[in-house]
Amino acid sequence: MFAPMLHFLINESANTSNFPNELKKGDIASHVKNGDAFAKKNYRPMTVLPAMSKIYERIISSQIICYIEGNLSPYLFAYRKGYNTQHALLRLVLKWTYLRRLVV
Q: Do residues 47 and 80 share a domain?
């Protein structure tokens, strides 16, 4: 009962490129970082967003990632899930090894 309504709202939001204003509002609380709890500099603001906002963000993020992943270069390793600097370094080492064999 709840899922079809949520499905409709998220699709409508994506089709109109409009994120509901009510989901942008959050409660701001202060949180102690470390050290003296009486010192103002040891606090940081923390915003608690509505749960629906997090659901929207997760769904829209996964849709954007699925769309973009197919258009990225196979040589791009940064900011991609499952890739890191080790992949880039391994690719370079393999390339250099291959080139060295061609020269020798």
A: no
